[in-house]
Amino acid sequence: MLRVVKPRNARSKRALDAREPKEVEDARTAIFVKGTHTGEVVKNVMKDLMALKRPDAISFSKKNDIHPFDAPNTASGSSSIQSLEFWSSKNDASLFAFGQTTKKRPNGLTFVRMYDGKVLDMVEVGIENFVSMNDIKSPKSTPGHKPMMHFASELFDTHPRFMQLKSMLMSFFNGEEIESIHLAGLEHVMSVSLAPTPATLNTASTSADTITSLPKIYIRTYTTKLLSSGTRIPRVELVNMGPSIDLVLRRHTDPDPVMLKQALKRPKLKKTDIEKGLGKKRKNMEVDEMGDLRGRVHVGKQDLGKLQTRKMKGLKGGAFDAEDGDEKATKKKKTS
């Protein structure tokens, strides 16, 4: 039986209400955790990723002996998954970035995604090349701004491993959901591209035998520079901001189908949202490019021969002009 937490005062009640599910969720908080052996490369990568994620980022300064992909310890009865779930519940966070380096898997970085306080899926990558933001002398973006994300490969839409990585990165850097954004608020771009795809790559296979044949992942971050172009649309140039990271895919954990179905479930839309064109499409109603709701009305067939109209001299022609001419002639005869 689950323990029901009752608020003791108004402050704790507001805190509990803020953690309840919402139709439009808040920005996801990410926790950056260091393993027992991290190394300078992993530390600097996590530091730069946390700078891109701020202010929705929490850093654990102490080292933690956790291994997300290992089986739980039967002797102690505890596991790394339980530690992640405890930290997620305590800090109201749904994302983790865990850094660990070993002799077998050097410079490893694991992304963990949570749902309803439980681990949904995990992706482990290896860092092969890294250039820090401090090494690139250029202007940086403002913390808290949403990045524009660009995935430059068809494998992000066809291969299951890269589809999972794309979903993970978008959840990690998506930020808060907003209705509109100013053009000046689009300050930086995150470009995720792949090396040339090997000819032997089977897009339908996800076994461990094909991990070595998967192409490398290149993450580059740029700031946008808006220049005058003589029109209303400015000319955009990209300036390298950093970090630049080269990754390779390693281990992963697929999400549970039942939990994934619940995570993708959307709430029912309100009547006002349906009238704006959202949700299920209604018959003979559509929303134009300007966002206005337009409807089509069908009426019965009309007999235009019985339509009574107003006769105006300015619109007369032909036979009416002839009649007018005859009337004028008769008037002249009477006056004479």
From TrEMBL:
InterPro entries: Brix, Rpf2. Residues 1-21, 301-336 are annotated as: Disordered. Keywords: Nucleus. Its main location: nucleus. Residues 28-258 form the Brix domain. PROSITE patterns: BRIX. Residues 1-13 have a biased composition (Basic residues). It is found in: Nucleus, Nucleolus. Belongs to the RPF2 family. This is Ribosome production factor 2 homolog. The gene is RPF2.
